[in-house]
Design goal:
- This protein is α/β, with parallel strands linked by helices and 258 residues long.
- The chain contains twelve helices and eight strands.
- The longest helix has 17 residues.
- It binds adenosine-5'-diphosphate and magnesium ion (MG).
Length: 258
């Protein structure tokens, strides 16, 4: 059965999408079958693997939105291969914004994603879900489906702000929907030369001991360029520092969830 990881933080720009594609690609390079799911209507993850969300025929709303579901469409038809072996994607498109408004009135909507991916859970080793920047219904369906929440935290002064609300949400999901859910933080966009960044990082390691990965992802322009090029970092720049860090993180994740 695939291990399911929801990459979540309600703050935007902290490295969720970057972590989802870079970690997913590096787990795939360790010869594991990986599915990444774009659960953001902005479709940045979809673009990060070189797909144009405007050209996609089927996307995540076709699987979870009762207004869009066509029972003749199986999840296998919505999943696309990427240029990287062992890395597949469930793409997103703009309809997902309407999906979010539509599903909340459904009793038990929290299970929509968990149920949608059940048919393929045996075909993958890892499923990574890129959540939108909000503690919204879409985030809730991701947390309900997940074994672990991976929380990218940008190592800057206000980073820890807002983490409390995310942890409360995780606790509520554990209590009411998914008792086996765990969480792990990872420091991202880390500027080693900046004293405040270093202080924030050491504080995170004290506060979240046992719930934070050893690997820290440093600032690296190559990763910005790889997003613009629509190529995952191990394809765009395999020897870049950030790719080596995401490879380290992949090894940690595989070890933790094996
Ligand atoms: N380690 C990094 N170094 C430099 N830029 C980064 C790094 N990680 C992410 N970025 C850039 O920061 C921006 C926000 O990252 P993104 O992954 O889209 O965040 P989120 O999905 O949380 O909104 C993007 O332009 C991305 O390319
Ligand atoms: Mg994003």
């Amino acid at each position: 059965m695939a291990k399911i990881i929801a990459v979540s933080n309600q703050k935007g720009g902290v490295g969720k999408t970057t972590t989802c594609v870079s970690l997913g690609a590096n787990i795939a390079l360790q010869k594991k079958k990986v599915l990444i799911i774009d659960l953001d209507s902005q479709a940045n993850l979809t673009m990060a693997v070189g797909m144009d969300p405007d050209d996609i025929e089927l996307a995540i709303p076709d699987l979870i939105d009762p207004e869009e579901i066509d029972n003749s469409i199986s999840i296998q038809k919505v999943i696309q291969k990427t240029n990287l072996e062992n890395l597949d994607i469930l793409p997103s498109d703009v309809r997902l914004a309407a999906t979010e408004q539509g599903i909340v009135s459904i009793e038990g909507y929290e299970w929509l994603l968990a149920n949608a991916i059940k048919p393929i859970q045996n075909e993958y080793d890892f499923v990574l879900i890129d959540c939108p920047p909000a503690l919204s219904p879409l985030t809730l369906i991701a947390l309900t489906a997940a074994d672990m929440v991976l929380v990218p935290v940008q190592t800057e002064y206000y980073a820890a702000r807002g983490l409390e609300r995310l942890l409360e949400t995780i606790a509520a999901v554990q209590k009411h929907l998914n008792s086996s859910l765990t969480y792990y933080l990872v420091g991202t966009i880390y500027d080693r030369r900046n004293r405040i960044s270093r202080d924030v990082l050491s504080q995170l390691y004290i506060t979240f001991e046992g719930n934070i990965f050893e690997t820290v992802i440093g600032i690296d322009n190559q990763i910005r360029e790889s997003a613009a090029a629509g190529e995952p970092i191990p394809v765009y720049s395999p020897k870049s520092r950030s790719n080596l860090e995401y490879e380290q993180l992949a090894l940690e994740v595989i070890h933790l969830l094996k």
